[in-house]
Amino acid sequence: MLTLRSILQNICQFFRGMTFKVTKRMYRSSAVFMAGAAIITVVAFTSAGFGSGGRNALTAFAETPETEDVTDQEEVKEETAAQEKAQIKITEARMQAQQLAGDFLEKEVIQKQELAEESKAEIERINDRIAMEEEAKRQAEVAAKRAEEAKKAEEARIAAEEAARKAEEEKALQAMSISQEDYKVLQRIVQAEAGICDDRGKILVANVILNRVKSGEFPDTVKGVVYETSQFSPVSNGSINSVKVTDDTKQCVDRALKGEDYSNGALYFMNRGGSRRGAVSWFDSHLTYLFQHGNHEFFK
What we know:
It is built from 9 helices and 3 strands. By secondary structure, it is mainly alpha-helical. A 3-stranded antiparallel beta sheet has the order 1-3-2, sandwiched between helices. Residues 199-299 form the Cell wall hydrolase SleB domain. The chain crosses the membrane at residues 31-50.
């Protein structure tokens, strides 16, 4: 029979040659195994001398692994339960993490959408403002262009009217062969004597002045007739120099110069209510009464 030493050496060499991962259970099993192997060796080695005692020892040893197996099963169950609990916790943690990640992602997407909508709205507001400014600018340009065209049209109209007036003046001057100075004097005396009268009354005063120029009994110029001593009160009181000749008066003078005549050859006129008594008597006693128009009475 082998010695105890040689048996133990063989066992150690056997385990030394194996490479594996030792768990808690395996560690316990291997320890029991080695202890059991040692006991079996001792019992086998001494079985002849120990008799029935050796068999009892073997019996006792054989019962030990059964208790260990029960303990290991309980530990395995506990470990399995612990692992299951851990797995459940890990799963729950993962679900919570996924839920949080999903919530965060959803919130981020919503925020991005809101920012995008705000940016879009701001861009639209800017575009609307630019469009309004451009429309206002366009309208201002159109208004300025229309105003410029209206100004040019008005200037053209005024220029045309002025040209027409000058043409009429030239025509009238040529018809009577009077100078520009006489023409201005005739306008002022008509304005001063008949400025408040109607057109016929103004033309009649101009007719009387022109009749005197053509008669040979008076100076042969309008200025000479008008400024003859004691003939016309506006010359005497100086109002002829301060009057403002209206366009209507100018037109009436031009009409008279072109030949429009209502005077019946009258060489005199007076305003009976505004004349001195002596002058009125002279008119009545020395002149031939023709007619009255407005406040003026006409004589020859």
